[in-house]
Design goal:
Layout lengths: L1 H19 L10 E3 L5 E3 L4 H19 L10 H23 L6 H10 L5 H18 L6 H21 L5 H17 L3 H21 L6 H19 L2 H17 L5 H7 L1 H8 L3 H5 L8
Antiparallel strand pairs: 1-2
Helix pairs in contact: 1-2, 1-8, 2-3, 2-8, 3-5, 3-8, 3-9, 5-6, 6-7, 6-9, 6-10, 7-8, 7-9, 8-9
Length: 290
């Protein structure tokens, strides 16, 4: 039940932060236009980052005074914290500083050939670097294991971004992916460490669905990376290799196929994708725009 409690704490904490935040997202610097040409704040994933920080600070204080079973940060909690802050920072850079129409691997590499470094490319390269540091931090790993595990985390983070083309999409599909992962890892340290992140994601879902804020790459990056990290720290080598290969195929496929068009073409996926959003109210689809 510990992971369930951690999930609920994440949900309650993010709802509290949303309630007391006031105009924290009212800055003109965060204003972006969505697919309906409505202006709202991006980088709503900041609330996930703040939630994780508040919870881990609270757990550390309680542990120091003898409340709870842990007196300090576990290796799993440290890894999750680093993933949340590292990938969240890279996502926020892209949310706030991106300009131009360069999209996908081809777009970013094409810009590099023209002598331009896009924020998207920085996010991709920085994400790979963050993933390598996370994987290497517990100790020495063989070249193959390091590459596979780091690639899994980085590709999962990028998939979170690729899905973030419609209100609530990344959170919904992230939570669906989280269910079997949570069952598999149970109450292992990584399961308890990841649970508040996913609880906070669920807590943000109403705001994202009803277009009161955009999750942004700040949040999508974090959700994908943390789920990837859970697989890396909670499963055996063969499973990690298989998941990494699947993520690689999906990421490459995104260069050729529009996820939004695929989802809109499959009735169950379309219903799930639009459930609870204004698109369900109006029967609208979306396009793949970042």
């Amino acid at each position: 039940m510990t992971a369930v409690v951690a999930f609920l704490v994440g949900f309650v904490t993010v709802r509290f932060l949303l309630m007391v935040s006031g105009d924290i997202l009212a800055s003109p610097a965060l204003a972006r236009t969505n697919y309906r040409n409505v202006t709202l704040a991006t980088a709503g994933g900041l609330f996930i980052i703040l939630t994780v920080l508040v919870i881990d600070a609270g757990r550390s204080v309680l542990g120091a005074i003898g409340v709870g079973s842990e007196s300090g940060l576990t290796q799993a909690r440290l890894a999750v914290l680093f993933a949340v802050f590292g990938f969240g920072f890279l996502g926020m850079v892209d949310d706030l500083a991106a300009h131009g129409d360069d999209r996908g691997f081809k777009g970013h590499l094409g810009a590099l050939r023209d002598g331009r470094v896009t924020t998207g490319l920085l996010k991709l390269l920085g994400g790979a670097a963050v993933a390598i540091v996370i994987v290497a931090s517990p100790g020495f790993k063989s070249g193959r294991t390091l590459v596979v595990d780091a690639a899994l985390i980085a590709l999962a983070a990028n998939l979170g971004n690729l899905l973030d083309r419609a209100p609530g999409r990344t959170i919904k599909f992230g939570l669906v992916a989280y269910v079997p992962i949570a069952i598999a890892i149970g109450t292992a340290p990584i399961g308890i460490a990841v649970a508040p992140v996913m609880g906070a994601s669920l807590g943000l879902l109403p705001e994202d669905l009803r277009e009161r804020l955009m999750l942004g790459d700040t949040g999508a990056n974090v959700i994908g990376a943390v789920l990837g990290l859970a697989i890396v720290l909670g499963s055996r080598d063969s499973i990690r290799l298989a998941v990494m290969l699947v993520l690689l195929v999906v990421n490459v496929a995104a260069e050729l196929v529009s996820f939004s068009r695929v989802i809109d073409a499959v009735a169950p996926l379309r219903w799930f994708d639009r459930w609870g959003s204004r698109r369900a109210d109006r029967g609208q689809g979306t396009t793949d725009v970042a």
